[in-house]
Design brief:
alpha+beta; seven-stranded antiparallel β-sheet; three-stranded antiparallel β-sheet; 48% strand; single chain; 167 residues
Length: 167
């Protein structure tokens, strides 16, 4: 039997992108920092997002049935920290500039890329909910190719991945 702490320690060595996942709708505006996000298929464009069921934002995502995955750049560490903290929703959204695409979920203006989604299915697995999300709009960074660095999480610390071309 694998202990939960052993599993978490092992998973800390899996490098993951850092994302802020947001929602807005009838239940209000909320967001959280997430690393458990991945592509499922490109036909139809679908993402998988995992969220702890005990999170104070969980019910809002379930009720709103929409979300946006904002992929963070290296300069977004303060945004990640705010959305991972116990700050109230209003305080979290004071970090960064926000707009909307199709669903109304907040889009971080200078994210590397934002995936605006409708939640199509929710499956409970252990302590988490797995959201299957249909991508309805995408907004990519306006930075020239090669000038972005991604914020990643490895061994319980932030790191940067990518190359900034200096001409």
């Amino acid at each position: 039997m694998i202990e939960a702490t052993d599993f978490r320690d092992a998973m800390s060595l899996l490098t993951t992108a850092v994302n802020v996942v947001t929602t807005e709708g009838v239940s209000g505006v909320h967001g959280f920092t997430a690393s458990a996000v991945c592509s499922v298929t490109d036909t139809p464009p679908t993402l998988l997002v995992c969220m702890n069921q005990t999170s104070r934002s969980h019910a809002y995502f379930v009720e709103n049935k929409t979300l946006c995955v904002n992929v963070l750049g290296a300069h977004h560490e303060p945004v990640s920290n705010a959305f991972a903290s116990k700050l109230h929703s209003e305080e979290r959204f004071k970090q960064g500039a926000w707009s909307q695409l199709v669903t109304g979920s907040p889009i971080l203006e200078d994210a590397l890329v934002s995936f605006d989604c409708e939640i199509e299915q929710i499956q409970k697995v252990g302590t988490h909910s797995v959201f299957m999300c249909r991508v309805v709009a995408i907004k990519k960074s306006e930075q020239p190719d090669g000038q972005e660095e991604s914020l990643v999480y490895f061994n319980r610390a932030y790191s940067r991945v990518g190359q900034v071309d200096i001409a």
